Amino acid sequence: MTDEKDTARLEAEGDAAADFLEELLDILDMDGDIDISVEAGRAKVAVIADGPSQDLKRLVGPDGEVLDALQDLARLAVQADTGEISRLMLDIADFRAGRRERLAEQAREAVAKVQESGARVSLPPMNAFERKVVHDVVLAAGLGSESEGEDPNRYVVVLPAS
C-alpha cells in the first residue's frame, strides 16, 4: 500500500522526469502533453501527442528501443534531481499501453495451450516490462511461470498446474 509520503515522493519523481522530457521535446521541436500519475507503487509519465502522433513515434523506435533508452535517461534525470534511484515507467504515444494488451493476449493464448496440453510453453525473448505483464496474466489465470535465459534473450515459460 502506498502511503501519502510515498505518493508525494513518486509525484516528485514524475515532476522531475516531466521537466527532463519537456526540455527534450523543446530541443527536438516536438509537441506533446505530459501526463504524470502514480500506479502500482511507481511513478508513471506518459507523453501524449497533441495531434497526429507520427513525430512522437520516432521517440519510441523499432520495438520500443528508443523508448527504453529515454526511460533510462529519465530515471537518471530523476536520480540527479532527487538523489534516489527511480523505477519510473515512461510511455510515449501509448506504445506501452498497446504493447501491454498484445502481450496479455499472447499470455492468455499460452495459458490456454498449457491447460490443453499439460506441457510447458515458452514465449519469445522479452524485456523486463514485457515479462512482468506476462507473469501477471499467467498468475491471474491460476498457473505459474518463470523467466529463463540471460538478457537480452530472457523469456517466460508458462508452467502447467502442479
UniProtKB/TrEMBL annotation:
It comes from the Bacteria. Coiled coil: none annotated. CDD domains: KH-II_Jag (cd02414), R3H_jag (cd02644). It holds the Pfam family R3H. SUPFAM superfamilies: R3H domain. SMART domains: R3H (SM00393). Residues 97-162 form the R3H domain. InterPro entries: Jag_KH, KH_dom-like_a/b, KhpB, R3H_dom, R3H_dom_sf, R3H_KhpB. This is R3H domain-containing nucleic acid-binding protein. It comes from Demequina zhanjiangensis. The lineage of its organism: Bacteria, Bacillati, Actinomycetota, Actinomycetes, Micrococcales.
